[in-house]
Amino acid sequence: MALVMGIDSSTQSCKVVIVDTATGGIVREGRAAHPSGTSVDPEEWWQALLLAIDAAGGWEGVAGWSIAGQQHGMVALDDRGIVVRDALLWNDTRSADAAADLIEEFGADALARRTGLVPVASFTLTKLRWLRDAEPDNARRVAAVALPHDWLTWRLRGFGRENPVLDELVTDRSDASGTGYWEPGSGDYDRALLVAALGHDAVLPRVLGADEFVLDEAGRRVAPGAGDNAAAALGVGARLGDVVVSIGTSGTVFAVSADRTIDPTGTVAGFASADGHFLPLVATLNAARVLDAIARLLGVDHAELSRLALAAEPGAHGLTLVPYFEGERTPNLPHATASLGGMTLASTTRENLARAAVEGMLGGLAAGADALRALGVRIDRALLIGGGAQSDAVRLIAPQVLGVPVDVPTPAEYVALGAARQAALVV
């Protein structure tokens, strides 16, 4: 049997699955933790990757591999292949002012047309501008810019400070589309934007097609890799017309689309998919944490919260929860707070409050789906993944709120499985 390795290098940890290409089944797996924080030495990711591979039984029988990783993180290298400074992760917000400066210089409309994105602190482009302004000496040292999955792929292929061939950096279109300096229409980098951010040009990873591969030192085929959401779409088997609703602490709503999207408001990020299509995405701050908060308030576990919600009528007798507990990104209301409305003696019950929490959380995600529809994205079916999708109430109420049929795939490491599927394709 031919085996492939799929790797998910996320913010929290590194997960490795070894998959039989004939059956699609996992035959071995391993994981290792990542350090916390929003600025991390990439060497920590490298050591975790080696530990996770070892925990998964090593390389025996593996014919090919692929790495999916957290998007947007800035890994800056000098001309000797040495990391210039700790990587800034997607959730590092120190570049918020840099994002505003770039929008002022170029205009939101123009940036959305050029790159599919309106800059926010998450994107690599803004982190490079921050580096230029805050650490000019480090910025001048930068000879190449990679994303986390690009850099790990480069290292695992045998490159690094002992073999610093920067031109061997490779990536895929999904991760490139989250940088803020890649053009989804042409498939080329927007060098003018890179220079405007960093202050000079630099080596950028070569963007591989979905079925292209490179080789590692042992002659194994290495797939392009992907950003985490694009790999999850591959892993869960999302197809045209599907919207994936990921209910973690925060939420993401992304659809597989045949056409690129351009949203000058910045609500929808016009990412690319890993299979040659596009992956427009909306992010929300308040998802499973809404259920956590109401469960704590009621003094129940999540199973009992679900039972209470299903005991109430749809609409919770007019009780409504606007779930902006930590502000909100979609819509862009960073200073908003949650509110409970429609309270009457009849409506204010434990059951209705539980129902309002589920409906309110799903309503926030439905707003993301509506934003996709407003840009012409076709949505025929929703796939619910993430911890929040394991709630009976969420699964049963979601079709009513989202307005489309809902499937809930069996919980799995879908990012790592997506990377394994990509590796299987090139093998």
What would your notes on this structure say?
The structure is a single chain. The protein is of the alpha/beta class. It contains 14 helices and 21 strands. Strands 1, 2, 3, 5, 11, 12 and 13 form a 7-stranded mixed beta sheet that branches. Strands 16-17-15-14-20-21 form a 6-stranded mixed beta sheet, sandwiched between helices. A two-stranded antiparallel ribbon has the order 4-7. A hairpin with a 5-residue loop joins strand 16 and strand 17. Helix 9 packs across helix 14 and helix 11 packs across helix 13. The radius of gyration is 22 Å and the shape is globular. The two termini are 12 Å apart. The mean pLDDT is 96.
Short description:
The protein has 427 residues and is an alpha/beta fold. The model has no long low-confidence stretch (mean pLDDT 96).
Work out the helicity level. Answer: 25-40%
**What oligomeric state best describes the polypeptide chains here?**
single chain
CA-atom Rg in angstroms: 22 Å
Total number of beta strands: 21
Sheet-strand content, in percent, reads 15-25%
**Overall geometric form:** globular
- Distance N terminus to C terminus? 12 Å
Which structural category do the helix and sheet elements fall into?
alpha/beta
Largest sheet: 7 strands, mixed
> Spans with pLDDT under 50 lasting ≥5 residues?
none
Mean pLDDT reading: 96
- Count of alpha/pi helices: 14
